[in-house]
Design brief:
This protein is of the alpha+beta class. The chain has helices spanning about 1-30, 75-85, 115-125, 130-140, 145-160, 180-190, 195-200, 225, 265-280, 375-385; strands at about 45-50, 55-60, 90-95, 115, 205-210, 215-220, 230-240, 240-250, 255-260, 280-285, 295-300, 305-310, 315-320, 325-330, 335, 345-355, 355-365. A 6-stranded mixed β-sheet has the order 14-16-17-12-11-15, with no helix packed on it. A 5-stranded antiparallel β-sheet has the order 2-1-9-8-7, sandwiched between helices.
Length: about 375
């Protein structure tokens, strides 16, 4: 009896083990080790936005439309407004008394000191000089107040409609705010400017005033040295805003901007958010999926067909599971009458993702086709007869 009981218990343990192993095997069989798309983008930030820069697609967000103070990430707007103002960046100008002794982080400018606008932009973006922001505003706008108007106007033009700038540096003010989404939008725009991109990606630089005295600047953005592909852009901190960071990163041809507002571990969490975005999303040339015929019938031409094609390209960030959602719609003429000139529009292709139109372009003839002469037509008739 005892032996039978012992055997039954052993059999039960074996069955339990086999069930667990089988269940685990099924779990592994049906799981996709690369499919982490449903995972949340965890962050302690009060607001966050991860955006692919070229398409402005939001890859992840948290409270991204909440209007919040943004500390010195303000200077992204200050810098791009100055750079695109048309003022000569290499022209030397004198620092006024108003730019001296501004509270917070400082380049320690002195009244009467002379710098180029370009050098002050490095002081603005690398070490976050509040005094540099005032000097830039005065010089470029004619007054700080006029320059702030320029900042707000440019923000509206970029599409950052939930932002308002009350100063050039980001010190706390009731009327000075942005959203994580707006700041990602502004940064995506700014990073298209080669001068801005060069400045914010610089780790160390020496600037020299007109008297030959040097200042050595080291970028406060630690991710420039520790995160693969990081190429900017700006740190910030005030009591109201907390720790803020805007990061730009480029990998495999895809540019991603990450904004965290009021985030204690801003460097660590931004790096994690960006790594996750690059793991899940890839920039895809959707025009490479075109499947229309590359020849079109020609009526009354010296050749029966003409080559057709497109000129554009459209890149969009997609997850692997989203590729099946891409659909193409072609509208192409059945034939074309000779003579045919290269570049004639004979159709259109549209790209839809999840039934939303994302891109469209014309389809063109890609070569010339001459019309048959009367003798060629007569020859054809004789051959047919």
């Amino acid at each position: 009896m005892k032996n039978k009981l012992r055997s039954a218990l052993c059999l039960l343990f074996v069955l339990i083990f086999l069930f667990a192993a089988t269940a685990g095997g099924l779990s592994l069989l049906f799981s996709d080790s690369n499919n982490t798309f449903a995972e949340s983008y965890n962050t302690s930030a009060k607001a966050m936005c991860v955006m692919e820069a070229s398409s402005q697609r939001v890859l992840a967000q948290k409270n991204s439309s909440a209007q919040l103070p943004m500390a010195s990430t303000t200077k992204i707007m200050t810098a791009i407004t100055a750079i695109e103002s048309g003022v000569d960046l290499n022209k030397v100008f004198e620092i006024s008394p108003r730019a001296v002794g501004v509270s917070g982080t400082s380049l320690y400018l002195r009244a009467g000191e002379k710098f180029t606008l370009r050098d002050l932009l490095y002081g603005l973006m690398l070490i976050s000089g509040n005094d540099a922001s005032v000097a830039i505003g005065e010089y470029v706008g004619g007054s700080v107040e006029k320059f702030i108007e320029m900042m707000n106007k440019k923000a509206q033009a970029i599409g950052a409609t939930n932002s308002h700038f009350d100063n050039t540096h980001g010190l706390d003010s009731k009327n000075h705010y942005t959203t994580a989404y707006d700041l990602a939008l502004i940064t995506s725009y700014a990073m298209q400017n080669p001068t801005f991109k060069e400045i914010v990606s610089t780790k160390n630089i020496k600037i020299t005033n007109s008297d030959g005295k040097n200042r050595y600047l080291k970028n406060k953005n630690k991710l420039l040295s520790s995160l693969e592909g990081c190429n900017g852009v700006k740190t910030g901190f005030t009591d109201d805003a907390g720790r803020c960071l805007v990061t730009s990163c480029e990998r495999d041809g895809m540019d991603v901007v990450c904004v965290v507002l009021n985030c204690g571990p801003m460097f660590e969490e931004s790096a994690a958010l960006l790594d996750k975005a690059f793991k899940e999303y890839h920039l895809v040339d959707l025009t490479s999926g075109y499947a229309f015929k590359t020849k079109l019938k020609v009526e009354s031409g010296q050749q029966d067909y003409v080559k057709i094609g497109t000129y554009g390209s459209y890149y969009y960030p997609l997850r692997t599971d989203e590729l099946k959602k891409v659909k193409y719609k072609y509208t192409i003429d059945e034939s074309v009458e000779a003579p045919v000139e290269s570049g004639r529009a004979i159709g259109q292709v549209e790209i839809f993702i999840d039934n939303d139109l994302h891109f469209s372009e014309k389809i063109y003839t890609m070569e010339n086709v001459r019309r048959n002469s009367i003798w060629e037509k007569l020859k054809d008739l004789i051959e047919q007869w």
